[in-house]
Amino acid sequence: MSSSPLPSHVPTLVVGAGLAGLGCARTLVAAGEEVHVVGASHAVGGRVRTDDVEGFRLDRGFQVLLTSYPEIRAQVDLQRLRLHPFRPGSRVFIDGRTEVLSDPWRNPGSAFASLAATVGTLSDKMKTAKLRSSLRGEALPSLLESSDIPTEEELRTLGFSERFIDGFFRSFLGGVFLERDLDTTARFFRYLFRLFSDGDTALPEKGMQALPEQLAEPLEGRITLEAPVQVAEAGRVTLRNGTEIRADRIVIATDAGAAVGLVGGAPRAAKPTLNTYFDAPEAPFHEPMLMLDGEGTGPVNHLAVLSNVAPSYAPPGRVLISANAVGAAASLGDAFAAAAREQLERWFGEQVREWREIRTYHVANALPAQPVGSLDASRAPELSRDGILICGDHTLHGSLQGALESGRRAAEQLLGATAGAAE
Ligand SMILES: Cc1cc2nc3c(=O)[nH]c(=O)nc-3n(C[C@H](O)[C@H](O)[C@H](O)COP(=O)(O)OP(=O)(O)OC[C@H]3O[C@@H](n4cnc5c(N)ncnc54)[C@H](O)[C@@H]3O)c2cc1C
Question: Is the CB of 398 under 6 A from ligand 1?
Fold first, then answer.
């Protein structure tokens, strides 16, 4: 996606070229509206970016695409992304050995294929199946309005064993919520539990950035990159370099922190994450599965051999591994890689000494914090004091789905206002 010249005036200006901004602008363009997008960075995608380093595809922080996200299904040509799915289920390192949970989400009937797996009891398996079936009976959006309690309390109320909560849920959901205390609202847990059950968890052949690049295609000629906005007020924005753009309507589609800086509002806590990519001569295991820290020792919460899932993520003959930290371990900074090696030697033995660190990514504001009281499906998009529309994952929920949907809804709100004014 090349950067286009800035207009001096545009009917609708979208600030931010992440999924929310792209989702908003695409919807407006599809309705025949004139729109321009300005993004601070030198590429589209916001938090969804991929670096090509020595033939490895490094997503900026380990992330995955769920094919069941309704907004992705509606707005994205999944075939063209040439997706590579993870195998449902997880490998769990617990009590000094690896156990395989064959599919606790998608196919609970075959869950715990390895009867030797001790991390979950038969009762946990049955409860998983029951929960899945009851959630599949609900309309998806209603799950975001269901009872608002912390996820940990929800799991206890559902009767899961402490060993299953600590050995499986804390690390699996820790990787999704970016926190292991499981104080994220159970609304989000139920919603995602359902979505994990309904489709594949996958990586695009060319890396996660292929997703925003495809979303940006209808916006060719309408996006200016490396154009950070300094001031946004009714009717105009001023870029950091002093350039002014007048706009009849402005949409702020940045992350929460930048939105507060531009239009005010209450600051929102964010969850950090950190991951180190290793180049290895051999894969420590061959299944395209996620591996979890069932012991809770950290600092690695979850690990993926990405080239087992998508061979295009590594050059021929090499293996790409992502070791990921959440919660307190995400603040380890450059000390993480060495601490991760120590832990992973317990998982995989001496082969870890041959792994070479390619790069470590520190993502300070990876996800908005989503405790009880933070998630209200009917809230997005929001209006600032001077009538500027605000969208982004922080206005709905922290996910690709939340970002894209909030952008589309912002566009529909503008289109509704235009239609109303014309009547
Ligand atoms: C490491 C990591 C792992 C994740 N894993 C998953 C996952 O597995 N599955 C999932 O569904 N979600 C995941 N997410 C969440 C998902 O990526 C985000 O929720 C989503 O991408 C947010 O999109 P957004 O458009 O709301 O915000 P952003 O992507 O933050 O986009 C905001 C845009 O605004 C721009 N901007 C900011 N300030 C200005 C300014 N002043 N002027 C102009 N432009 C500005 C930024 O450059 C950026 O382009 C993950 C996120 C991270 C970081």
Answer: yes
